[in-house]
Design a protein that fits this description.
Strand content: 25-35%
Strand order of the largest sheet: 1-2-3
Radius of gyration: 16 Å
Shape: flat
Order of helices and strands: EEE
Number of helices: 0
Largest sheet: 3 strands, antiparallel
Mean pLDDT: 84
Helix content: under 10%
Length: about 70
């Protein structure tokens, strides 16, 4: 029998983020359009991407966007 694994939460705090939803992809069979969301701090740091796992560059990238 497989042993169940548990996460033990030790701390929680409220933080404020921006969630930006966009369509990514060229609309081709090799790169279909899909909806993804980015979680971004108010200082402009990209914290997470929800959805497709393809790495993409940001068009018009500027100094406010800090990629991890």
């Amino acid at each position: 029998m497989k042993k169940e694994l548990f996460a033990n939460f030790r701390n929680a705090k409220e933080i404020k983020l921006l969630k930006i939803e966009i369509n990514e992809g060229e609309g081709t069979p090799d790169d279909p359009v899909c909806r993804v969301a980015y979680l971004i701090s108010k200082s402009g740091e990209v914290l997470a991407k929800i959805g497709e796992n393809k790495e993409r560059k940001f068009a018009g990238e500027d100094e406010l966007i800090k990629l991890k």
